[in-house]
Amino acid sequence: MSNSNITTRFLQCLDLLVAEGKVRSKRHFALSLGYHPQGISEMVAGRRDVPLDLLEKAIHEFAINPGFLFTGIGKPICIPGEEDGLRLRNLSIVTDEKGEERIVHVPYQAQAGYGGQLDDPMYIRELPTYQLPDPQFRSGTYRSFEIAGTSMEPTFRPHDIVIAAFVEPRYWEQAIKSSQIFIVITEQEVVIKRISNQLKSNGYLLCCSDNPEFDSYTIAGDSIREVWKARVKLTSYLEVAPTAMQSSDISRQLQDQQRILERLQHHFAVSD
After folding, report:
1. How far is CA 63 from the centre of its chain?
2. If you average pLDDT over residues 185-214, what whole number do you get?
3. Which of 114, 121, 241, 245 would be 92's cystine partner, CB 3.0–4.6 Å?
4. How far, in Å, CA of 13 to CA of 203, rounded?
5. Rounded to an integer, what distance in angstroms lies between the CA atom of residue 119 and that of residue 150?
6. CA torsion 125→237→158→132, rounded to 10°?
7. Structure pTM?
8. pLDDT above 50 for 269
9. Lowest mean pLDDT among 138-152, 206-220, 254-268
């Protein structure tokens, strides 16, 4: 029998605790958590996997990083004030009297301070909210953002509204699909861009505009506070239908084409 990846990482954390002097020995570690030291020896020998209750106690008592244990991402031991490898955070939502979640709207005027007040439930509750009848909006968390500027034209125009679905931070590397449109929130700004996801390889998102007059730029992964996947566009821009071509215009075009054809035939005849 071989150890699971979680057990292997758990033992790495235990070795680090011993090396840093946070526990005197593996035996001391086991006894301090009410676990039999022989169980640790069985894990080291590859004959047993770490039980869930021991993991829970170790995470609580010794700040072992759950993100590292379950994914291999992050530092083995959490440092106070730092995020764990799972990048967990609370998302403020607004519900109606029936407990059904409402869509929070972030108008352009509110976007300047939005990234800095995400952890303030009162700020979120003061923003406009609404519900839509489409069943797709009955599950998950959605937010809408007003478009400003022309960097995403012709896909989005100023004052268009984009309804977007929340992307859990732990899934950013997989769920942010390249060439798709996302709203990216940092402390300083709210941007809507077509994304090239380079978080895993380079630690950033490459933000591209649909309007070729605007240059692409990067946003570092550690500066991102929220990511939302664009789902629906609401627009008041209705393109004017082209004017129907009158019969006289068609007749005039046919006559012009006929004259061109006659001149070409005359030219070929002279050349022969």
Report:
1. 27
2. 95
3. 121
4. 25
5. 30
6. 20
7. 0.60
8. yes
9. 254-268
Rg of the chain (C-alpha set): 30
In angstroms, how far is CA 219 from the centroid of its own chain? Answer: 12
Closest CA to 210 of 240, 167, 180, 165: 180
Q: What pLDDT is stored for residue 263 in this prediction?
A: 66
Assign residue 21 a region (left: φ > 0; alpha: ψ between -120 and 50; beta: otherwise): left
- CA dihedral (261, 267, 268, 272) in degrees, to 10, reads 160
Task: Output the six-digit token pair for 22.
Answer: 């946070």
Q: Which amino acid is residue 263, in one-letter code?
A: R
- Residue of 192, 185, 165, 167 whose CA lies nearest to 113: 185
Question: Tens digit of pLDDT for each residue in 148-197?
Answer: 999 999 999 999 999 999 998 878 988 999 999 999 999 999 999 999 99
Rounded to whole angstroms, the Cα distance separating 53 from 71 reads 18
Q: How far apart are CA 190 and CA 104, in angstroms?
A: 15
Q: How far is CA 215 from CA 4, 45, 183, 184, 193, in A?
A: 46, 56, 17, 17, 11
